Amino acid sequence: MPETVPTEDEVLAWFESLSNWGRWGPADQLGTLNLVTDEKRRAAAGLVRRGRAVSCAWDIDTSEHPDDAGTAPRRLMVTTGQGLADPARVLAPGQESHPRHAGAAEQISLYPHGFRLTHLDALAHQFWDGRMYNGRPAELVTAAQGATELDISALRHGIVTRGVLVDAAAHRGVDWLAPREGVRPEELDAFLEAHDLTVEPGDAILLRTGYGAKVAAQGQDRIRETGRAGWHAACLPWLREHDVALIGTDTSTDASPSGYPAVRNPVHLVGIVAMGLSVLDNCNLEALAATCAELGTWEFQFVLAPLAFAGATGSPANPLAIL
């Protein structure tokens, strides 16, 4: 199979040639999610045959990971069930007896980006030459208010569309792709042809490299040292040509190192800034791959509802495939 390996100059030119700036108007907040129409959502509902729901997310736990970009998730318990049966417990002012009712609550702190949490990037997450998607200045993301435009709350109505799983690891006949390996458009086409699938405007394409299987067998990689498998930059024109609305990956999307020193994460940068592409990082696609193989289908209804957190540049997510 011939390999498509664009030069760095070609990748840099894609900021212009693949751009969706102005395509949906100067005030657009959704980017490629404009391609998910009411008809597209209705059609996606028709893909549900068995009613099987499969999560594509990792658990959020508070353990330390070797490549945490920020702090590990933190859970601060505000109230618990501990001590409720202690007869010597000091009661709150005004209470004369131990109440029968109690409850538990916590405060949670998360760093949504990086290599760990399953998360959806807002269009405010990436800048190129001081600009965000649709030409908005990067200065619209402020310390006081966060992202004042293109924040994750623009997606408060969620994403419901047709999803397609491209299982690159299974297609290659391996348990998982090695770090640094990128999946190119020829491989996408070969997988789709092998499974009699076509990609339609507004689809969500989920790419399995098998990293979840590797984690189960060997533990987490030190990604900054080893690199990671993922989408090769060569797929960007393919994604634009097919009008894909969202891509999701079981790594943090870009094959790394990308081979392009001037644009280290080209799928994120060209995809988000130029195309307005929705990018879903760090999925766990093992259960979905097993379910697709069991049922003999690689298309499904895809559902994702990010937190409507005003000003946020991303959101933890629990994407669902419903088959």
Number of strands: 15
Helix content: 10-25%
Uncertain stretches: none
**What's the CATH first level?**
Alpha Beta
- Please describe the biggest sheet, giving its number of strands, its sense, and whether it closes into a barrel: 9 strands, mixed
Question: How many structurally independent domains?
Answer: 1
What's the quaternary structure here?
Answer: single chain
CATH architecture term: 3-Layer(bba) Sandwich
User: For the CA atoms, what is the radius of gyration?
Assistant: 22 Å
| Mean pLDDT across residues | 95
Q: Return the CATH topology.
A: Glucose Oxidase, domain 1
What percent of residues are in strands?
15-25%
Overview in brief:
It contains 9 helices and 15 strands. The chain is α/β, with parallel strands linked by helices and 323 residues long. The mean pLDDT is 95.
